[in-house]
């Protein structure tokens, strides 16, 4: 069963995917060696992550070898202030903490609780009504496209989202309150149908738009860099001069000065964002398999994006038992790349029918020179469906 078959089956059963289903989906995607072609990396499986939020461990609040812990049991009713907001820990939506079936969102119309919520590192939770949230007009044909995208810079200071009022993508600086709008207009209907994703540069100045738009936008000047036909942008380096692109033939490339230099050979794995040096990228690998059986990743591989050639392969070290990262994102300094792993609760048959799952994601940093794995924080909650966004992933 491939990823699409899995979720078609779940939709027919009117069962929103849980984190357990996501693990099955990842296995299916890896078995066909097409993981980066699925909606996993783009957040299309966001319906697995949801609920009344309990938050343990904040990215960016590390004290020596210890991770600061804040528990936030219930969201505040406040709307995001116009300015003066401290850096974000994460964002989430939870379908009001209620049961939801794909394609049946109209029952939630007019309710504030379907909006994105952002959580600051000091534990404040705000509704963000200007950011389009869940799609209430979702259909059976696009049930994996649950909500409009939202992206947070690694430092938590800027957030990108789709402004339904303006029909444009927006980037907001949380401290100053300044908002920049992309020059491209995108209708709500196109958002629901095509599920475009957005990716920010580490400083939040450049916005990657994929799909029909196929561009990188300097949000502070409005300058648009179009991506050549046949390629899709995936991430952009600080300063915006280098862009990682991909095509439908399992090839990655580096877009610079208007030209794409393809990597040497095909690569069917999800790449990290560009490292602070502007040239290093990483991916996770489980090794070759003579069968279609899924093999957990146990190695981090780095590439030079200017040549596409491998720099080093390093086995994980000091990883927790059962470590199975499923997503790779930004960097925490020159040698550590951030990955996340799905958190799962007891299986459905071991819980009461009325008891939602405890699920979410745990963020880790992997040192690409030594393979050492260290935990950054865990973001868990109880609920039936929804999504969480961690900065830079």
TrEMBL record:
InterPro entries: Quino_amine_DH_bsu (IPR011044), WD40/YVTN_repeat-like_dom_sf (IPR015943). It comes from the Bacteria. The chain crosses the membrane at residues 39-58. Keywords: Membrane, Transmembrane, Transmembrane helix. This is Uncharacterized protein.
